[in-house]
Amino acid sequence: MESNLEEINLKKNLDILVRRWPVAAAVFASSLGLAAVGASMQKPAFTATGDLLFEVDRTSSLLQGGNLDQVQSYNEQASPLNTQSVILQSNPILEEAIARLELSDDEGKPLAPHIIRNSLEIESVIGTDVLRVGFNSDNGEFAANVVNAVMQAYIENNITENRSGSRGAREFIATQLPMSEQEVNKAAEALRQFRTENNLVSIKEESTRVVNLISKLDGQIADIQSQMMDSGARAEELSQKAGMDSSRAILLSNLNNAEGVQEALQQYQAVQQQLTTARNTYTEGSPQITALQREEASLQALLQSRVVEVAGPDAGSIDLGMLQVGQLQQELTGSMAQLEVNRRGLQEQLRSLMASREKYRAQASRIPSLETRQQELQRKLSAAQETYENLLSSLQEIRVTENQTIGNARIIQEATAPDTASMKRRNLLVAAGAFLGLALGVAAALFVDILDRSLKTVSDVKGMFGYTLVGLIPQYETVGGEAAEESAEGVSPRILLANSPRSIVNESYQMLRANLKFLSSDKELQSLVITSSVPGEGKSEVSANLAAAMAQVGRRVLVVDADMRNPSQHHFWGLTNRAGLSNVIVGQEKFENAVQAVTPRLSVLTAGVVPPNPLALLDSKRMASLVEEFAEEFDCVIFDTPPLSGMADAAVLGKMVDGLLLVAQPSIVEGDSALAAKTILERSAPNILGIVANGVDLKHTPEGYFYTDKQAEYHDPIPKKKSDRSLSLNGSKRS
Prior knowledge:
Elements: H1 2-19, H2 21-41, E1 46-54, H3 58-63, H4 80-88, H5 91-101, H6 113-118, E2 120-124, E3 130-137, H7 140-161, H8 167-197, H9 203-242, H10 246-257, H11 259-281, H12 287-311, H13 320-323, H14 327-397, E4 409-413, H15 424-451, H16 458-465, E5 469-474, H17 480-489, H18 496-499, H19 504-519, E6 527-532, H20 539-552, E7 557-561, H21 569-573, H22 581-585, H23 591-594, E8 596-599, E9 602-605, H24 614-618, H25 621-633, E10 636-640, H26 649-654, E11 659-664, H27 671-684, E12 688-696
Parallel strand pairs: 5-12, 6-10, 6-11, 7-9, 7-10, 11-12
Antiparallel strand pairs: 1-3, 1-4, 2-3, 8-9
Helix pairs in contact: 2-15, 5-7, 8-14, 9-14, 10-14, 11-12, 19-20
């Protein structure tokens, strides 16, 4: 089991390296190139070395009253050899050595210390109190002279340093003063930023301002509440006069203003009048009476249906006799409806004012904590200022001078000129560059892959969702010239089943259509929802091409653009979007007038006018009835819905259809978004048919998902002749 896991992890890492090889290769080549350049610039070097022995700090012993005869090892102290190594490479020591050797640059100025420091090597001899000082140069005698000059300069500097025991304290305080000054500045800046961020000139003034604002809001809230009470009293009075509540009044007002209802009502009243007149002339059962009775029944049914269209679920509570009211009754119901609208507006204003009042109350509750924080910052500033003043006073008091000539280091071996040069540094530099480049290249590839939070492969998508993979659509690009010509014809070049009927993408959509048929062998799918996790995964394009694939095999297909937030189907098919699904749902347009035929077997119902709340339209009984009507008229109905991220449109509509198809595009959808989409689907529990992997690079996709010719072109492989551009999806000429 462990062996299998290791094999899986190794394969996964290898896949990452294959996918990110440009990053790894670039880092490796850069590192190796820099190492090679550095090695080529290295000259054959001669290395001269000398040794320094360190003993107990005699100056410190004298200052502390210690015994000079007691010898202590430097290794018993806290890394003293490392400290002396740093001192050996300091500018004063190197400048003294440069002055001894009279070294100068091309302009005659003293050589810069860093030039000597770059070639200086200092290391401790393991198990001893000895520092070995080395210098690399293309001149062996010069290297030996530099080592001896540096060691001698250090010995003299060490003796000078030991003359004053107080010098260390003075240097310590001198290094602490800038840091203490920075602390003072930092504390002062923190106090200033706190006042700026919170707009505090004075805590007291801020408190007064917030209290005044709250008082002003209280007065406005009281005014709104008074208006609401007055509106409620007027509504109650009108309700008593009209004999109905406000909701019934709004409903009757809508019916009285509906032209269709009033037209049917007038016809119905006219037939009733004719029937009354005819009964005075003819006997019951006569052809004239019978014809008028049939016409009366037909108009009554028409009137009832139009009432249902306007009133919706509340139509059952409306008696046709209530429609035949007088002018006074109509005015009363209209006034009641207007009062209800005004009352709701006042409620919104009241909620807004109360939210603002709560906001300022929260600000008022923060004022004590702000005052506490300001006092804390003020105390920190005072403490930092006091520390700085104490350090400055102590520095001025240290004036003790000791005249000591005893050092704690001596030269035990001077440097001599080496006889042979070494190429070791060149080889080590190239090897280190190659190894570092390989490690950094692998790390950079893995790091870039980790930063990319998207699902990168079809396996990642399938593993995240856990649904059946029913389709795989490869990446493709349309040819520029063909795209321009097809755009002139109206149909988007992305509808490859119309523009490239023999392409590999066409075969992929035909395979998707066949797989959907196999999923529902006992009952053929008549309606399905197509959605995705996030925008940009191509769910609208998949919807259009799948519809075209189904139309090619003779099925009557309807594409419904249910993405009323960002409609796109009319762009794909070159149609207008003056009226569509939203208009049909609210009854502004009949389906027969809104639907647009692309071919004899493919029709499109665009989204229509963008409504303020698309979810309310989709989650309605009218929408459910439309789904059933569409399924009765067409062999297959495909709903293009918004993505699942942050919107419940697809989940709601998915409960009304036979199944839901999820489009996922690797490298576009991220793990968090995919998990959120899966959670939404699990909660709504639609019939999930499976996943369609869109925009897949077949060259990097393992075999076994679908049979595809990976040697094929992924753009439009068969440019069409000019005479073929008017062909419809079923092979016939467009009218």
